[in-house]
Backbone:
């Protein structure tokens, strides 16, 4: 069975192994490169994405929101979408980058794991699903108007 003195002895041994003889604390270590927190997307992509989701939810409301239960479910869906983007926005704003990336300023390509991507490729990958949602929402509203 391990006792508290064993934990303290283990921690002291771990500290002795990881620090050089002159070091006394973690702050004596060299500063590491902070993680990159820039989202790297230009404002135009974000505006299009939010507009596409607004069109989708508008079409959904126009097509299906004709009783209290459906309205309630749509409101819950809208709140989930707001929570999804809102939490990401709050977390991003905790450590904003000092300056926008070259890609978001239109001066370079987006560096990805598989290689650099130009703005057209990024727009195609990021905005395909929101654009399809918007088309679906408009189509549902048109069908509702034609059928009923």
Residues:
């Amino acid at each position: 069975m391990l006792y508290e003195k064993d934990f303290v002895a283990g921690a002291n041994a771990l500290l002795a192994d990881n620090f050089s003889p002159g070091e006394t604390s973690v702050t004596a270590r060299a500063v590491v490169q902070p993680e990159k927190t820039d989202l790297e997307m230009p404002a135009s992509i974000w505006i299009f994405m939010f507009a596409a989701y607004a069109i989708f939810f508008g079409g959904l409301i126009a097509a299906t929101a004709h009783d209290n239960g459906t309205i309630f479910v749509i409101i819950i869906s809208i709140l989930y979408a707001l929570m999804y983007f809102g939490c990401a926005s709050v977390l991003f704003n905790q450590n904003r980058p000092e300056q926008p990336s070259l890609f978001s300023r239109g001066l370079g390509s987006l560096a990805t794991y598989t290689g650099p991507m130009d703005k057209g490729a990024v727009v195609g990958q990021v905005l395909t699903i929101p654009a399809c949602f918007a088309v679906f929402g408009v189509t549902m509203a048109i069908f509702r108007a034609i059928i009923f």
In short: The radius of gyration is 25 Å.
